[in-house]
Structures are given as C-alpha cells and as structure tokens.
Amino acid sequence: MLLVTKAHHSSQVSQGQPAPSLGLQCPGGRNPWTGVSQFLQTSQKIIQFASGKEPQPGETVIYVAGAFDLFHIGHVDFLEKVHRLADRPYIIAGLHFDQEVNRYKGKNYPIMNLHERTLSVLACRYVSEVVIGAPYAVTAELLSHFKVDLVCHGKTEIIPDRDGSDPYQEPKRRGIFRQIDSGSNLTTDLIVQRIITNRLEYEARNQKKEAKELAFLEAARRQAAQPLGERDGGF
C-alpha cells in the first residue's frame, strides 16, 4: 500500500491501467503494488455502513472535514470529543477528493482512495453522515444546506485554500468554529513512518542474515575445492 505512486489517485490514470512504476513488475507487465485501485463503490455498500437517519429537531448538527486517511484511533478520539460537545449531536464528516488531499498533504497521499475512506468513516459510531468529495473551504452554502450549528477541526495545521484564504473563514466569521484537541498524538504521517521504519529494519535484518548465509556457502565451496589432504580436519 505504501508503495503507491503519486499518481495512484489521479483521474488521469484510466481504470485498469498500471500507474507509473517503481521498477517492480509482475510477469504480465502490470505492477501488482502500484496499480490504480479497482475498488468499486456502490449505493448498496454505502447503505450497509450509513445510519440512514436525518438530523432530528433538537439535534446539534456538527460539521468536520478532512482526509481521514488510514482511519485510526486518533481520528476516533477526535470524533468522540466532538460527539461530547452536544447532548444530541449529529456529526457530518466531509471527506475531500483524493486530488485535494494530495494538494495539501503532498507526497503520495492519500494512501486510501475516497471510496475506501468513506466506508472507514461511516463505520465510526460517532458519525451520522458523510459528504463524499466535500469542498475544501467550508462555505456559506455548505453551512446553510446542512443547517450546520458548529464546525470543528483538530489541532493539526490548517492549510490555506488554493487562493491562500482560510478554509474556515466563514464559520469563524459566524462564531461557530472550534478547534478540538483529541488528546492523541497519533497521525497518519506517524503510522506511515512507523511502517517505513519497520520495513527498513526488516530489510536490514534479512540482508545481514543473507550475508552470513552467503559467507558460509562461499567457505564451504572453497573447502570443497581444496585437495582432500588440505581441507580442515584432513590428514
């Protein structure tokens, strides 16, 4: 998963075609690690995960937005804290398009595509609804459409929009914006770094083991090539 290329989420790579290679090819010519995801989203899959409930009178509609990539306990802790902000919360999570996530996170993010991230977030008990492909800026139209009472963001850095503006300027202007500290220091970047570090340590151990095995085989080969009387233990 972490060997995906920067184009693995790009709409310019047609479905069924291999993404740019890292030099690892399977016999058929397609790269088994960097191909575009073939995950197919259907309405039935979404229904299986979604609550199907609309906000009821007296409920507080809370909007959160982000990538929610590699959905982890840090995300859950944040959503739980948001859930506690109201007696009857109705949390709407806006998930950004893959290309938008790559714009503000860079590197090879997102690791999971939009469809995979959608189902991951919908599976969280604190989330009532998901906006698939939400706009990066929380606009007046979005707030009015969903009748949002409160907008929350974690303690992670807020990256400016493409035009340099604050994506939360409208909810801040209305006085309905709050930053929430989840109490967790776990991030997607940290998970990725752990995986990469463990992978490098694993490869280093294997290289040492392989070097010892090759040295043993070379010593055995040299001994076998010596005359019988000159071998170790010979007479």
Automatic annotation (TrEMBL):
Pfam name, any one: CTP_transf_like
GO molecular function: ethanolamine-phosphate cytidylyltransferase activity
Any GO BP: phosphatidylethanolamine biosynthetic process
Broad class of enzyme this protein falls into: transferase
Residue span of region Disordered: 1-24
Classification via InterPro entries: Cyt_trans-like, Ect1/PCYT2, Rossmann-like_a/b/a_fold
EC number(s) from the headed UniProt entry: 2.7.7.14
Top-level taxonomic group: Eukaryota
GO cellular component, one term: cytoplasm
Annotated metabolic or biological route of this protein: Phospholipid metabolism; phosphatidylethanolamine biosynthesis; phosphatidylethanolamine from ethanolamine: step 2/3; Lipid metabolism
SUPFAM superfamilies on file: Nucleotidylyl transferase
Family to which this protein belongs: Belongs to the cytidylyltransferase family.
NCBIfam families listed in its UniProt record: cyt_tran_rel
Alphabetical list of PANTHER family matching this protein: ETHANOLAMINE-PHOSPHATE CYTIDYLYLTRANSFERASE (PTHR45780)
Protein name: ethanolamine-phosphate cytidylyltransferase
Source species: Macaca nemestrina (Pig-tailed macaque)
Source taxonomy: Eukaryota, Metazoa, Chordata, Craniata, Vertebrata
